[in-house]
Amino acid sequence: FRVILIPFMMFFYLADFIPYGIGKIVALVIFVVGALTDLLDGKIARKYNLVTNFGKFLDPIADKMLTSTVFFLIVADGTIPHPWGAIMVTIIISREFIVSALRLIASSKGVVLAADMWGKVKTTVQMIALPISLFLAFVYTSGFAFADWFVLTVEIVTYVLLALATLLTIISGVNYLVKNRNCLKEDEKK
Q1: Interhelix angle for 53-76 vs 117-141, to 10°?
Q2: Category of 143 on φ-ψ map: left (φ > 0), alpha (ψ -120 to 50) or beta
């Protein structure tokens, strides 16, 4: 469902022809719905014993697609200023590729690498920061005369949360590599 929501979220975010930045608010709502389905689908699958290999495969991909799309959108339109937005997105996306590659290597050796506390905290901060970032995009494009203190507050909260998400991304990525470095060792030939 999250994967299906992505093009709709992108459409509304980029739909500048919709007056007063309403498209950005619709994109924000779609993102929140997608994030909530992420919480619900795992709980439902575990509760009713509906966990499948396909679900285990698609769930993290859908998460990464949803969050990466928002990161790209808020950087591409300048909601997050250049070059900081590009640096942040590069760090976050690179970590996801590295961890995914490590999981593939581990899987080929019959090892399952579970998410740890740092990864869960990183994801939680991202899931809070991204809708606030979408709201900031709305503030910038709505045409409403928001008070300067309000705009500054939303900017500070957004930038602090995104900086924290980036820092947690680095910490969780390094932690993941250090904890699972044995997976990177070559098998000894017999």
Answers
A1: 40
A2: left
